[in-house]
Amino acid sequence: MSLFKIFDVAGSALSAQSVRLNTIASNLANAENASSTPEGVYRARHPVFAAMLDQAGRPEGAGVRVVDIVESDKAPMLQHMPGHPLADENGNVWFTAVNPIEEMTDLMSAESSYRNNVEMINTVKQLMLRTLQIGR
Amino acid sequence: MGKLIDAALGIHPQAITLGAKRLELIAGNMANADTPGFKARDVDFRTTMQSLLADRSGTASTMRRTQVGHQSAAGQALDSAALYRVPNHPALDGNTVDTQLEQSAFAEASVRYQASLDFLDARIQGLRKALRGD
């Protein structure tokens, strides 16, 4: 019964989207992250999605998986704040380059994708229950 | 007897199989709405339905297994049925899934599936009535 597969497909999408929501949450939480070295600053994390392939290698009716979580290569912002407790000997502090507006729009997109997949699971569940009722 | 019941059920079992396949493809499209490079797929309902019905009635040229190692070709009409959707506005990352379009396609496919279920249900009730004879 291929309707069963839809649970796997939509379920994989739910877990991929929740990874995305997780990374967005940690990006937003660290939006004000500061450090005394450019290497020590938090960098925004983004998941990379890829389609799962079936046994024949085709992306047919495919689920989705997170192949990697990459760190943004955006350069941290340098600010001269001699009074900052994290300032180095020159009085410089590096702040993370996370853009909260970008993250919020990404959050909206992830949320709507998540919701779509939940709707799909509900619809398919109803269809399957009705299929079981045939001829009753 | 099998033929008789097949005839009584009409095209609906095939319609349900194809409907489930279509739902599955659209679910895959929706799941990959954010996957770079993913190409949305769907089936051409009319042609696939025709080839499924041809399969059933034995008018199609079907493949025979003459060696032990040969793969079963059952359901080949379904397997080769998926086509790529022509995108209205492809994204920069090569993804051709249009979520709104997929959503409406999913709704349509699920209504069609339910309709087929209802038809099938009615046929089965009819068969039962005929068998019982009351």
Order of helices and strands of chain B: HHEHHEH
Oligomeric state of the chains in view: heterodimer
Order of helices and strands of chain A: HEEEEEH
Our count of helices of chain B gives 5
Indicate the proportion of strand residues of chain B. Answer: under 5%
Specify Rg of chain B, calculated over alpha carbons: 19 Å
| Low-pLDDT residue intervals, each spanning 5 or more residues of chain B | none
Could you explain how this protein is built, in words?
The complex is a heterodimer of chains A (136) and B (134). With 136 residues, chain A is of the alpha+beta class. Chain A has 2 helices and 5 strands; from the N terminus they run H-E-E-E-E-E-H. In chain A, helix 1 runs antiparallel to helix 2 (100-132). Chain A is elongated, with a radius of gyration of 22 Å. Chain B has 5 helices and 2 strands, in the order H-H-E-H-H-E-H. Chain B has helices at 2-9, 12-31, 45-57, 76-79, 99-132; strands at residues 41-43, 82-84. Chain B has a two-stranded antiparallel ribbon. The longest helix of chain B has 34 residues, at 99-132. The radius of gyration of chain B is 19 Å and the shape is flat. The model of chain B has no long low-confidence stretch (mean pLDDT 83).
